[in-house]
Amino acid sequence: MRFRTLIALAILAPAALAEGLPDLGEASRTDLPPYMERRIGESIMRDIRLREPSYIDDVEVAAYLNTLGARLSAAMPEAGQSFEFFALRDATLNAFALPGGYIGVHSGLILAAQSESELAGVLSHEIAHVTQKHLARLMGKQNQAQMTQWLAIAVAILAARSNSDVSQAAMATGAAAGVQTMLNYSRDFEREADRIGIQTLDRAGFDVRGMASFFERMQKFGRLYENNAPGYLRTHPLTIERISDMENRILQAQYRQVADSTDFQLVRSKLRASQGDPRDAVTDFETQLRERKYLSEMAARYGLAVAQMRMKNYPAAGREVTELRRLKTASPMVDTLAAEVRRAQGDLADALKIYREARVRHARNKALLYGQIEAMLADGQTQEALKLATVELQLTPSDPALHGLQAKSYAALGKRLQQHRAQAELYVLRGQLVAAIQQLELAQKSGDGDYFEHSQVDARLRELRARHLEEMKQKMPF
Ligand SMILES: [Zn+2]
């Protein structure tokens, strides 16, 4: 876990790395200012996306977590900030909030949740840590030296990019546990996050008992494996009082039977099917179906199809998709999978038909949109692909993946200036300013494009260079 060892390094040897960081002055003695928290968060997030191997770059998993997270934060009127949820492939039970509203969830925790309310309970608890400014208070409470350690996290990550010795040293320390200590919330913070989390769960229409039951199960799990307590309980210490506090609150709440959403079940199956040896996943899902031991037949068949796709057993995957349609599973995730199976079987026309029809019902679904553009490009419908990407970009201009698909379409059409220009916007949105500037320089030298397009490239380049200079001047590593 490169990312985590680097954080540990920042804690062990912050002084040398943090040289040249701005003096935070009085601000460091109170709360961390929100703009700085956001910048630290953005910087860590950019690094996770680029170099954390366990980062799950899956539009469907991300969309599910963000939809669930948005539903929860909307139920918290005092939230007043944006959140981004992401998943890491990690079997340990953990979830954590980074500065700036970024909330990470391990796949192990999603798989261990026995109901959507349980997962929602953990997310609500994390959202509450953010809205109550626990992280900012924790960081702000520390003195200047400790504060610098926090800032050094980003520096350490950046340093490792150009200096392999630093990452070597990080590996050698092997003391990632330092992060845990740093992130240990106080008991008061935990109680507050529980109280607000339960309120949020209730307001968002989930079963509030989900929170206590999940935490209790984690605790039992912890007792069974003395030296291997779930990471979540180490960063969010669970005490007997905390559980009884939660139970008292729950007694006051109304009893509510809440059905899991289809996407919760499908996302769990997808995560299970995508981890480890695909043969084990196939066996697992086949056993579930044979013995009828599943939460839902739909989710088991979907998981089996994903696992068969990994095995490149396309006929078997196709059979499961047919079964899913028979079960009338109305989820865009099933449509996307069906189209992918048809494409893998070589029937591009049928795949395109599935995308087209499904997008009438789910116009805003990203996986279907990206899949349709990719399939159009594979089918040689380059102009149509470009048109679709461009129209959609007018609706969601800050979608990096769409800029990437637009760049791909331009490349297929041989329009080099436009290709590099679109690629530059992808990098801008991912916070990679230097890479964006390089793309625009390539656009200038592309040898195509008209006068108007060249002046647009020149203007954008001036703007980004100025922004880059400003960031360098501030000597902020983020
Ligand atoms: Zn907590």
Structure description:
Residues 1-29 and 154-182 have low confidence and may be disordered. The protein is mainly α. Helices cover 70% and strands 3% of the residues. It has two domains: 2-252, no CATH class; 262-418, Serine Threonine Protein Phosphatase 5, Tetratricopeptide repeat (Alpha Horseshoe). It has a three-stranded mixed beta sheet with strand order 1-3-2, with helices on both faces. Zinc ion binds next to helix 6 and helix 11. Zinc ion is lined by residues 125, 129, 185, 190, 193, 236.
Strands, helices and their partners?
Layout: H1 2-12, H2 14-17, H3 34-51, H4 59-74, E1 84-88, E2 95-98, E3 102-106, H5 107-112, H6 116-131, H7 134-141, H8 144-162, H9 164-173, H10 177-183, H11 187-203, H12 209-224, H13 231-235, H14 240-252, H15 262-274, H16 278-291, H17 297-310, H18 314-326, H19 332-344, H20 348-361, H21 366-378, H22 382-395, H23 400-412, H24 416-429, H25 433-444, H26 451-473
Helix pairs in contact: 1-8, 1-9, 3-8, 4-6, 6-11, 6-12, 8-9, 11-14, 12-14, 15-17, 16-17, 17-18, 18-19, 19-20, 19-21, 20-21, 21-22, 21-23, 22-23, 23-24, 24-25, 25-26
The chain binds zinc ion.
Compute the separation of the termini in Å: 22 Å
Strand content: under 5%
Structure class: mainly alpha
Q: Strands of the largest sheet, in order across it?
A: 1-3-2
Features:
478 residues; mainly alpha; Serine Threonine Protein Phosphatase 5, Tetratricopeptide repeat; 3-stranded mixed β-sheet; 26 helices; 3 strands; 3% strand; flat; disordered N terminus; binds zinc ion
